[in-house]
Amino acid sequence: MIDVDISLTVSDRTRRFDLSARFSTEAGFAALYGPSGSGKSLTLQAIAGLLQPTKGFIRIGGTTLFDSESGIDLAPPARRIGYLFQNYALFPHLSVEDNVGFGLTSWRQGLSTEGRERVQALLARFGLDHLARSRPATLSGGQQQRVALARALACEPDILLLDEPFAALNPLLRGELREELAQVQRQWDIPVLMITHDIEDVLHLAQVTFVYEHGQIVREIDMLNGTEQAHVREQLGVPATAEESDPLRRTLRRLLQFGRQA
Ligand SMILES: Nc1ncnc2c1ncn2[C@@H]1O[C@H](COP(=O)(O)OP(=O)(O)OP(=O)(O)O)[C@@H](O)[C@H]1O
């Protein structure tokens, strides 16, 4: 269960931005969708504890991470959050395995035996074993994304926050990695909150989508109840595809879906 109701303001000398975001969901995969600069990343940063709201609350799976009324404000490491940043933010001077194990490493004792085993298991899970000693700059976009995902999962988080996980990838790779992400979500049974600008991410992965405009959530689209893809596109202001507009093809697709479920 993700339950968020926050207000915050960020400003510098010339600009000021007010965010007021409120949403609640039990969906395993939720998307934050909206134009650039509408407040999606600020929402993730507040959930991760990197930015403090002026008021409101943030609850994940029954744990309160922040509550202005009761003065609760857990430090980022105590929030048990896996964060995949835009462009991954891998440490360029560390190897793949050191990047994955970074959050488990103590400065004094290094990586424990358990930590080392966890890193090895993650490297194997994401097909990165042969790249363990390589630096991020020598990896492809898809490999970098896997390293970032493995690093986000290493601390066994209660939730994964993904800031445009596929934006840096070429379109062909996106489909493959979407499927991988869906598998990760099922395998770890972990709720995922993902920012995206891509309608295909929404259609393939999200069970619910919160639509942002000017620092507020203006719409919620629930995809769990068999919502038509054309309807989702319409709600998001994206034109329907030829297939979705054709009643005969739509009926055939529904029959096929029905056949698969039966
Ligand atoms: N420290 C700051 N001072 C002033 N304005 C800021 C500050 N940080 C962010 N903003 C502004 O707040 C707005 C919302 O930023 P945010 O990063 O949440 O947008 P976003 O919806 O994630 O956009 P994108 O999809 O392009 O990443 C933007 O206009 C941004 O320029």
UniProtKB/TrEMBL annotation:
This is ABC transporter ATP-binding protein. SUPFAM superfamilies: P-loop containing nucleoside triphosphate hydrolases. The keyword Cell membrane applies. Gene3D superfamilies: P-loop containing nucleotide triphosphate hydrolases. It comes from Corticimicrobacter populi. The keyword Lipid biosynthesis does not apply. Keywords: ATP-binding, Cell membrane, Membrane, Nucleotide-binding, Transport. One of its GO terms (molecular function) is ATP hydrolysis activity. Residues 1-239 form the ABC transporter domain. InterPro entries: AAA+_ATPase (IPR003593), ABC_SmlMolc_Importer (IPR050093), ABC_transporter-like_ATP-bd (IPR003439), ABC_transporter-like_CS (IPR017871), P-loop_NTPase (IPR027417).
